[in-house]
Amino acid sequence: MGTSAVTVVEILAILVLLQSALFCCSGANFNGSCIKIEREALVKFKTSLSINSSDSLPSWEGDDCCRWEEVTCENITGHVVKLDLSWASVQGKVSLHLGNLSNLQYLDLSSNNGLAIDSLHFPSSLKYLNMRSVLLDKCDNWLQSINMLPFLLESDLSSCGLSITGHVSHVNLTSLEVLTLSWNNFNSTIPNWLFNITNLQHLDLSYSAFRGSLSTEMGNLNSLAFLDLSYNSLEGKIPKTLNKLCNLSELHLESNKFSGEISGPFGNSSSCIQNSLENLNLFNNSFSGSLPNNLGQFKCLKYLLLSRNSFCGPIPVSIGQLYNLDVFGNLPNLREFNTSSEAGIPDPMAISRQLESLETLDLSMNAFDGFIPSWIGESLSLLKVLNVHSNKFEGEIPLQLCSLASLQILNLANNMMTGTIPTCFGGFTAIVMHENRGLWDYQVSYILMFILKKIAMDSRLLETAADVEQNLNKAQPRIRWSPSSPRHEMFWIVQ
C-alpha cells in the first residue's frame, strides 16, 4: 500500500519536472511569448516601410512582439497568427516576404494608399488576406503567390492595379470562399483558372475592364451565392449554364454589353436558380426580346432591374406572383417601378391593381400608347412620382389622377396629349418662362408639376426632377388653365 503511494508521488514529481523543462525550452525559443525568428521578420518588415505618422506602430519595440499593437499571437505557442495593419498610414516600395511567420492566418494591409509591393511571399498557413488599395502593379508573381495558399478562405485584392500576368496550370485554392478582384485593370477575358475554384461563394469582378464573352464554365461554380460582373465590357449572350447555380442569391451584370434574350438562363422553369435568386440586375446592357413568362417562379426575388435595355413585348402577368419583390414589380410591398428603355415595351402593363404601396412609377422612354391608365389614380394612393415622358400617350389627363394626394412629381413630357388641365390641379403657382405670353391660354411644349412639402424631397426625387427638366414635349397642344383651389403648391410651365 505504502509502496504504491510512493510510486504515484514519484510519477507526479517526474511529470512536474518534465513540464517545467518543456516550458524552459520553449521559453528559450520565444522569450516568454514572442518567437525570436518571427519578431525578426516583423522588425525587418517595419524597417522596409516609410511610416507616415508618428502614431503608426509606436509599440513595435522590445522583445515581446505579442504585446505589439496590431499583432496577435496564439496563447500557448506564442506564434504570430494575426497581423492587422489596415489604415496604419504606412508607405514605401517593399518586397513582402513573411514566410518566417509560419503560423500566420490573418493578414490585412488594406487602405494604405502609399504602400507598393513588388514581390510577394506568404506563409502557406494564411486563411484571410486583405490587400485592398495596396499597389501591386509591379508584382508579377501575385497570382502564383496566391495560388500557393491551400488554406486561404477569403482574399480582397481590389484596387491593386492588377493585370493578368502568367498563368497557373493547377489551382490550389481549394478552400477559397470569397474573392474580390474589383477595381483593377485586367483588360482581358475572365481567366479560366477562376472557374476551377469550385468552393467560391462570393466572386466580385466588377469595374475591372474584363472583356469578351462569359464562359459557359461559369456554371461550374455551383457554390456561388454572390456574383458581380458589373461595369465591365463583357458581351454576347449570358450562358445557359448560369441556371445551374443553385445557391446564387445576387447576380450583378449591369453596365456591360450583353445582348440577346435572357430566356436562356432564366426561362427554364425547371432550373434551380429560380429557387435562390434574390437580386437580379441587368441594367444598361443590350438585351432584347421578351421577358420570360416564368419570372413569377422566382419566388425569392426582391430586386429586379431591367432598365436601359431593348426588351419588347408585354410584362408577364406572372410577375404578380413575386410577393417578396421590393423593386420593379407588382406587389403590395413594392416601392419603386422602373422600366425605362429606349426601345420600349409596346404593350401596356398587364399588371395594374396590386401596387398598393407604390411610391415611384417610371414608365418613361418606352413606346406605351393610348391613354394614361385610369387605374394609376384609382389604385396607387401613395404615389409620389409619376414619370411617363417620351411615350406615345394621347388624350386628356385622366381625372383619376386628382386622387393622388401624395403626388410630388408628374412628368408628361414628350407625349401627344391634348385637352384641358383638370380643375383639381388648380391652386398651382404658374410660371411662364416667356415674355408677353398669356397665362391662361397658350401653346406649351413642356409641363412639369410637383409639390413642395417643406422642401422634404429625398435624393431620388431630386434626381427625378432634374431628369424631368431635360425633357420637352414634342406635341404643341392648346391647354387652358382652369384654376380652382386644392392642395398642390407648385405648377411650373415652361414654353
TrEMBL record:
GO terms for cellular component: membrane. SMART domains: LRR_TYP (SM00369). InterPro entries: Leu-rich_rpt_typical-subtyp (IPR003591), LRR_dom_sf (IPR032675), LRR_N_plant-typ (IPR013210), LRR_R13L4/SHOC2-like (IPR055414), RLP23-like (IPR046956). Residues 38-73 form the Leucine-rich repeat-containing N-terminal plant-type domain. It is found in: Membrane. SUPFAM superfamilies: L domain-like. This is Uncharacterized protein. It comes from Hevea brasiliensis.
